[in-house]
Every structure is written in C-alpha cells, then in structure tokens.
Amino acid sequence: MYDSIELEKLGIPAIAICTDPFESGAKAMTELGGIPNYPFVLIQHPIGSLTPEELHDRAMKAAPQVLGSLLARPDEG
Hints:
By secondary structure, the chain is mainly alpha-helical. 49% of the residues lie in helices and 10% in strands. Helix 2 links the parallel strand 1 (16-19) and strand 2.
C-alpha cells in the first residue's frame, strides 16, 4: 500500500491489491499516506496456498476492479 501511494504522489498510476483480512490496515495506510480516498483492490484470502490455475482465476476476477481503480482519480474515491 505504501509503495502504491508514494508512486501515485509521483504521478505514476499504481494500485495496491490486498486480501480481505487486511482491508482495515489498507484503509489506515491511505489515511496515513495522505490520500484517504485512494482506491485499492481487495481479493479473497488466502492466496499463498492456491495453485497457479486458482491464482490465475482469482487475478482474472480482480482485473476489472484493478483496471477501474487505475483509471480512477484518487480524489474521486
């Protein structure tokens, strides 16, 4: 999350992707990072135990949200 926010501050579009148990931490990081409406993508937890095929499926399901978040302006939420 920190890296994504810092890249955005430099004008480089970035998106953080985290699993759902880390949502509250991600929201806190956006506040601390100075971009409280910074969009990030939540995916289902866990990912570490997935097969490559399962991980691919999870990524494909998240892709529209990732693209939408990258195209959104941070101040629009």
